Amino acid sequence: MSDLDYIRACIRDVPDFPKPGILFKDIAPLVEDAKGFMTTIDMMAARWADSGVERIAGLESRGFIFGCALAYKMGVGTALLRKPGKLPSDTVSVEYSLEYGTDSIEMHTDAVTSGMKVLLVDDLLATGGTAGAGLKLLRAQGAHIVGCAFVIELSFLHGRNALEGVPVDSLITY
Amino acid sequence: MSDLDYIRACIRDVPDFPKPGILFKDIAPLVEDAKGFMTTIDMMAARWADSGVERIAGLESRGFIFGCALAYKMGVGTALLRKPGKLPSDTVSVEYSLEYGTDSIEMHTDAVTSGMKVLLVDDLLATGGTAGAGLKLLRAQGAHIVGCAFVIELSFLHGRNALEGVPVDSLITY
Question: Which CATH number fits domain B52-173: 3.40.50.2300, 3.90.550.10, 3.40.225.10, 3.40.50.2020?
Answer without folding.
Answer: 3.40.50.2020
